[in-house]
Amino acid sequence: MAKLVIVRHGQSQANRDNIFTGWTDVPLTEKGIEQGKMVGEELAKMGIQFDDAHTSYMSRAIKTMNIILDRVDQLYIPVHKTWRLNERHYGALSGLNKAKVKEEVGAEQLHRWRRGYSELPPKLKHRQHERRYDRLGVKMPYSESLAMTQKRLLPYWQDQIAPRLLDGKNQLIVAHGSSLRALIKYLDQIPDDQIDKVEVPNGKPIMYEFDPALNIVKKTFITMDGEENGNS
User: Fold this and answer.
1) How far apart are alpha carbons 92 and 21 in whole angstroms?
2) 41 is catalytic
3) Where are the beta strands (DSSP E) in 131-197?
4) What's the pTM value of the predicted model, to 2 decimals?
């Protein structure tokens, strides 16, 4: 059976400070670095050999990926970077403190922006530009809903990850809370009105095991030492 392990990057400074980030680059905290090490050490204990690794264009995910691969002694495997695995773009909310936004718009509206499927955060007035995306011909969004994030993620899943799993090759994805929620929604066939209940904590790996037809056989929430394990 082919295995897929998905991991949200370790804690970033924005996570620590309760700030919306989206496509903005922010560094990992010391805790975030340690989370990456712990994930790698746990995967090393499990003896999983990956054939490929996939991550976003954001440094917090790339660095977490490198830490994990170092700890499992698999830095040599191919690493594929794609903007399609980026965090969702939070538009005009980017850079704002979540608690202050909650004070301004209320808990219910904030929850819809953060956890809803089709709710679109306030848009930027002007499109941002960065060389990393301009060189690809990718236009940075003014804002993204989770539905929009899933739409731009799925072609990469279908073209680059699913075929490798069908070939029996184990895959590792290190990405972001929203992009992984979008993938989980697709894999687990979660209804639109239920996805707001799904959380993907920093540095908490999830492993899917697939049969040769890419049906999910088992889903495991991989735990660190001292944590309780959960399977479904």
Assistant:
1) 10
2) no
3) 171-175
4) 0.95
